[in-house]
Specification:
The structure holds two protein chains of two kinds.
Chain A (H helix, E strand, L loop, with lengths): L8 H27 L31 H23 L6 H24 L6
Helix pairs in contact in A: 2-3
Chain B lengths: L2 H9 L7 H10 L4 E2 L6 H9 L22 E5 L7 H10 L5 E5 H6 L21 E3 L6 H16 L24 E2 L4 E2 L15
Parallel strand pairs in B: 1-2, 2-3, 3-4
Antiparallel strand pairs in B: 5-6
Helix pairs in contact in B: 2-6, 3-6
Classes of the chains: A mainly alpha, B alpha/beta.
Chain lengths: ~120, ~200
């Protein structure tokens, strides 16, 4: 059973050592707690909030879902920028097919922009 | 193991330590304070943790923003009666083992505001304080001295036996009752399990 026979043996060794390195101290800590140091949970210690004051009110507040429109608009321009730059750089070396594909892609994005325009997202309210 | 045998072994190049010593050595050199300042003493506490006074020499520069990660509460400043319940609550939320340094005249006794209606006359009325530092405000050196005193205290704590450290004894409490706001004062005004009124001898 040498390294020639099992070339990935070192992976197993690494894995076992990594798990041991992580789990070993936890096991030791658990043993220590069991032998010497008793757990002392309490109502306040187990409370969720931790900066002195007790929390008030409800965390379930309404959040406006209109924000998704801005997300979509951002995505349109973001994707456009990322793809247009290499497109411009490689423009002279491109085939007709590649050019057409790129135009179709840009047209899709422009369609998204047109959709948002018609929907009235671009008007500031 | 007696000291003579240990001496003899160390001469032969064999270092022997007790588990208790190893445990306390680790604990005393990694005390993480809660970053919690109440008044002007906190400025001195900050100075102590910065480069000039360098509290990190003692392994205590890691000021934690959460009581869940802290070992030491430095009550740095005036504890008003409005703030006292929060201080006790923060102390309760710290995991064991936990220690308290009451820093400055206000935190140990109310200080110059002792006669005031809104100032607690010492945080040791509600939580057990390990080291008191007088001064208004105490200099960073005084805080460092208090810290070294605490380290010596940790070093002397026993791992087993009836006089073992508080956090190792399941019967001793880890949480202390939080006072409520009463009509005129905190209710109760003191926790008699941790604090006894001083007997005035005239």
């Amino acid at each position: 059973m040498g390294a020639d026979k099992h070339p990935y043996l070192f992976l197993l060794v690494f894995f076992v050592m990594a798990v041991g390195f992580a789990v070993g101290p936890l096991i030791l800590a658990g043993l220590w707690a069991r032998v010497f140091s008793p757990a002392k949970p309490g109502e306040m210690k187990n409370a969720t909030y931790e900066c002195g004051l007790e929390s008030k009110g409800d965390a379930w507040v309404a959040f406006k879902s209109e924000y998704y429109l801005y997300g979509i608009l951002f995505l349109i321009f973001d994707v456009e920028t990322i793809f247009l730059l290499p497109f411009c750089v490689a423009f002279t070396g491109l085939t007709v097919g590649a050019c057409l594909a790129m135009f179709a892609f840009v047209l899709l994005l422009v369609e998204g922009l047109a959709w948002a325009w018609v929907k009235g997202v671009l008007t500031w309210k | 193991m007696d000291d003579g045998l240990r001496n003899e072994l160390s001469k032969q190049g064999v270092v022997v330590v007790k588990l208790e010593e190893l445990y306390n050595w680790g604990r005393r050199n990694s005390v993480w304070p809660l970053s919690f300042g109440l008044a002007c003493c906190a400025i001195e506490m900050m100075a102590a943790s910065m480069a000039r006074y360098d509290l990190s020499r003692f392994g205590a520069e890691v000021f934690r923003p959460s009581p869940r990660q802290a070992d030491l509460m430095i009550v740095a400043g005036t504890v008003t009666k409005k703030m006292a319940p929060q201080v006790v609550r923060l102390y309760n939320q710290m995991p064991e083992p936990k220690y308290v340094i009451a820093m400055g005249a206000c935190a140990i006794s109310g200080g110059p505001f002792k006669q005031g209606y809104n100032v607690l006359k010492g945080i040791d009325r509600f939580i057990p304080v390990d080291v008191h530092i007088p001064g208004c405000p105490p200099r960073p050196e005084a805080l460092i001295h208090a810290f070294m005193t605490l380290q010596r205290k940790i070093d002397a704590q026993k791992l087993t036996g009836p006089d073992r450290a508080r956090h190792l004894n399941a019967e001793l409490p880890s949480e202390f009752p939080v006072p409520l706001f009463g009509e005129h004062d905190l209710v109760p005004t003191k926790n008699l399990n941790v604090w006894e009124p001083a007997v005035v001898v005239r």
